[in-house]
Amino acid sequence: MIDEIHKPLKAICDAVPGALGATVMGFDGVPVDSYEHREPDGETDVGALLIEYSNLLGQVKNSAQMFAAGDLEEFSIRSENLTAVIRPLNEEFFLALALCSPLHAGKGRYLLRLHAPPLAEFLG
Amino acid sequence: MIDEIHKPLKAICDAVPGALGATVMGFDGVPVDSYEHREPDGETDVGALLIEYSNLLGQVKNSAQMFAAGDLEEFSIRSENLTAVIRPLNEEFFLALALCSPLHAGKGRYLLRLHAPPLAEFLG
């Protein structure tokens, strides 16, 4: 556990109703640190899903740059039982939040935006 | 141009400030109908980017189902110069909205949700 990473992950989850957990992960799918806030209701394997999404994230990043849409700032996926909001921190790492409902995804987006710069600085 | 598809695409773009265009597209990247609201400011090739994203969308859909997150409901990608909100209509088609800024993406999300059921019924 790395305090400089774990504390903001916990702060984000504590502030967003419906948060299941947050993580800082490499684009290669290797987590740097994770905070599990509570168990998902169903059988969703949040960790495994985020590793899967990390693969896609690299592709989205490249597509956006290729078609001159600029740098990728945020990526969010809403499924029936899980909403994930993902924000690249730098070329290597991203910050992700998993929620059991999309209701407070807006607040989640705001908090990721807020915590991203100091996390990027710590990792950079 | 198919009236039953073109009209809702235009209605969505007219109602959302910053809308660049909307499209109904197959997961294979073939557009059914598109409405171009206005030119993007930069060099972004919105059509080509959406075709690229349609590839990813299929993968996101499969991942979400595989890890028991349920059916994919919405997918959004925010890049520096373009925000895209995408909503699957059925197993074959999705509805997408491109915006030049993320400011009104929430309104866009709401309107896609509103127009998706009649579009899905028409296509089904």
Q: What does this protein structure show overall?
A:
The structure is a homodimer of 124-residue chains. With 124 residues, chain A is an alpha+beta fold. Chain A starts with a helix and ends with a helix. Chain A has helices at residues 3-15, 46-66, 105-123; strands at residues 19-26, 31-36, 72-79, 83-88, 93-99. In chain A, a hairpin with a 4-residue loop joins strand 1 and strand 2 (31-36). Chain A is globular, with a radius of gyration of 13 Å. In chain A, helix 1 packs antiparallel against helix 3. In chain A, 47% of the residues are buried. Chain A has a five-stranded antiparallel sheet, with helices on both faces. The first copy, chain A, has three helices and five strands; from the N terminus they run H-E-E-H-E-E-E-H. The model of chain A has no long low-confidence stretch (mean pLDDT 90). At the A-B interface, helix 2 and strand 3 of A face helix 2 and strand 3 of B. Strand 3 (72-79) of chain A pairs antiparallel with strand 3 (72-79) of chain B, so a sheet runs across the interface.
| Beta fraction of chain A | 25-35%
Give me the count of strands of chain A. 5
Q: Return the average pLDDT of chain A rounded to an integer.
A: 90
Q: Which chains make the largest contact?
A: A-B, 33 and 32 residues
The N- to C-terminal Cα distance of chain A equals 18 Å
- Uncertain regions spanning at least 5 consecutive residues of chain A: none
